[in-house]
What we know:
Strand content: 5-15%
Number of helices: 6
Bound molecules: iron/sulfur cluster
Order of helices and strands: EEHHEEEEEEHHHH
Number of domains: 1
Number of strands: 8
Helix content: 25-40%
Radius of gyration: 16 Å
Structural class: alpha+beta
Shape: elongated
Distance between the termini: 4 Å
Amino acid sequence: MSEEKKHGCKVTDIFICARCGYCCQGETTVSLDKDDQKRMIAKLGMEREKVKEQYWRVTDNVVQMKTVDGHCIFYTEDEGCTVHEGRPWRCGQWPLHPSILSDKNNFETIRESCPGINQELSYEEFSEILSCLLDDREKLVF
Ligand code: SF4
Ligand code: SF4
């Protein structure tokens, strides 16, 4: 989480990461845009081709991270995300996804999968704070 407070709305009122690692599990990952790729390469301090070979799954124009044993290649049980500053922006945004604001079902699904979400809040209460935090910025990272 890079900034705790924006416009008087506190991220911690709706979300505190429990560092459970659930969001790093699965056989696919979020995709990396061009900026994500550059940031990850810089963080790893390796040549692009080496990073691609070792860490990325590239399908047509879509770049994702490889998975190992059912989780993102950068996830370890001891340390969590081992590429934290170089992680894709979508990882930083999770679980406060803008789609929550347009569909209560998205809220329910995300809340069930992320124990860091404040489980005490109603959809309306949660949405009000998230809306304030997002402030129409597509790439807000927490
Ligand atoms: S880059 Fe880090 S935060 Fe994103 S899925 Fe992989 S381990 Fe998890
Ligand atoms: S699932 Fe939620 S609480 Fe768990 S690590 Fe991911 S963002 Fe944090």
